[in-house]
């Protein structure tokens, strides 16, 4: 039985890294199907992603243990991942454009992930989720019940064995504790007017200022609100003829595009965290 897996790593840059990785894979009967590398001259680090195939059912745990000596020699941070689609849990509130886009791409087979459930603090999007055959879990949130609601969220992540949590316009701020619990495995989307137009009615504020570009940013969730490592951004040029309603429509298109790309790249193990930034092998 053949098997594919993905190896990603980051380490201080020096000679011999690629040779050591290639030799290890060859010695374990593996072929490199896809290879990408970035040498960061500013930070002096090397980042690498390779998709690997083998003609036998590779034991990733055993291969990972065998690789420990190579990783130690070069000071590598390494991950061996199965190439199977990742399981994702989507969180929403009342706006459905991002959920609708994710569901469409999932059903079309272009998301690179398997949506396993939809969780919401409102009931509005239950029909959309259930029409797609997805479990819908209503977890209401108030100021007094927020700790219990977040505990429920974390339990659902475990229950559905979700690798990634996608905040698809989930309009609740997660606590620092929950952000830390989901570090590196939760993605959020917001309009790129932040922090220029914060608070309520950002598109009306943008209209009043005569903006010429509408955008959206998909990033990892951190305790610093909307300041996590950026995965993808989408920008659409507009002009004076766009009223606040038209700006909202364009903005939602940008949000859906940026979020779906970020989700796919994460699930295909194309995103490597490096400090407060990312390397994205597209």
What brief labels describe this structure?
282 residues, alpha/beta, seven-stranded mixed beta sheet, four-stranded antiparallel beta sheet, 34% helix, globular, one-carbon metabolism, hydrolase
Could you say which overall geometry the principal axes of the C-alpha atoms support? globular
Residue fraction in strands: 25-35%
**Number of DSSP E strands:** 13
The tally of helices reads 9
Helix content: 25-40%
Spans of at least 5 consecutive residues with low confidence: none
Widest β-sheet, arrangement of strands:
7-6-5-8-9-10-11
What is the typical, i.e. mean, pLDDT? 95
End-to-end gap: 29 Å
Biggest β-sheet strands, sense, barrel: 7 strands, mixed
Order of SSEs: EHEEHHEEHEHEHEHEHEEHEE
What structural class do the secondary elements suggest? Answer: alpha/beta
Query: What value does the Rg take, in angstroms?
Result: 21 Å
Active site: 226
Family: Belongs to the PurU family.
GO molecular function: formyltetrahydrofolate deformylase activity
Pathway: Purine metabolism; IMP biosynthesis via de novo pathway; formate from 10-formyl-5,6,7,8-tetrahydrofolate: step 1/1
Any overview of this molecule?
By secondary structure, the chain is of the alpha/beta class. It is built from 9 helices and 13 strands. The strands form 3 sheets. A 7-stranded mixed beta sheet has the order 7-6-5-8-9-10-11.
Could you give the topology of this structure?
Layout lengths: L2 E10 L4 H11 L2 E11 L4 E10 L5 H7 L1 H7 L2 E6 L3 E7 L4 H12 L4 E8 L5 H6 L4 E3 L7 H14 L4 E4 L8 H6 L4 E6 L10 H8 L3 E8 L9 E8 L6 H24 L3 E4 L2 E4 L2
Helix pairs in contact: 4-9, 8-9
């Amino acid at each position: 039985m053949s098997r594919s897996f993905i190896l990603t790593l980051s380490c201080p840059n020096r000679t011999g890294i690629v040779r050591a990785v290639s030799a290890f894979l060859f010695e374990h009967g593996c072929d490199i199907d896809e290879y990408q590398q970035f040498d960061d001259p500013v930070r002096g680090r090397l980042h690498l992603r390779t998709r690997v195939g083998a003609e036998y059912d590779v034991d990733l745990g055993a291969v990972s243990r065998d690789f420990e000596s190579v990783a130690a020699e070069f000071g590598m941070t390494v991950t061996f991942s199965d190439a199977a689609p990742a399981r994702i849990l989507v969180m929403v509130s009342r706006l459905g454009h991002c959920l609708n886009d994710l569901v469409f791409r999932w059903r079309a087979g272009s998301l690179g992930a398997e949506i396993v459930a939809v969780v919401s603090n409102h009931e509005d999007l239950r029909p959309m989720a259930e029409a797609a055959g997805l479990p819908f879990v209503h977890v209401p949130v108030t100021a007094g019940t927020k700790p219990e609601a977040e505990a429920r969220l974390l339990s659902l992540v475990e229950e559905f064995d979700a690798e990634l949590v996608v905040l698809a316009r989930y309009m609740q701020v997660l606590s620092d504790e929950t952000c830390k619990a989901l570090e590196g495995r939760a993605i959020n989307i917001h309009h790129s007017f932040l922090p220029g137009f914060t608070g309520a009615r950002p598109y009306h504020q943008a209209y009043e200022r005569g903006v010429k570009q509408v955008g959206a940013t998909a990033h990892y969730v951190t305790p610093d609100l909307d300041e996590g490592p950026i995965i993808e951004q989408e920008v659409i040029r507009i002009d004076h003829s766009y009223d606040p309603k038209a700006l909202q429509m364009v903005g939602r298109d940008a949000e859906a595009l940026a979020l779906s790309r970020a989700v796919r790249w994460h699930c295909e193990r194309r995103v490597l965290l490096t400090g407060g930034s990312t390397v994205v092998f597209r």
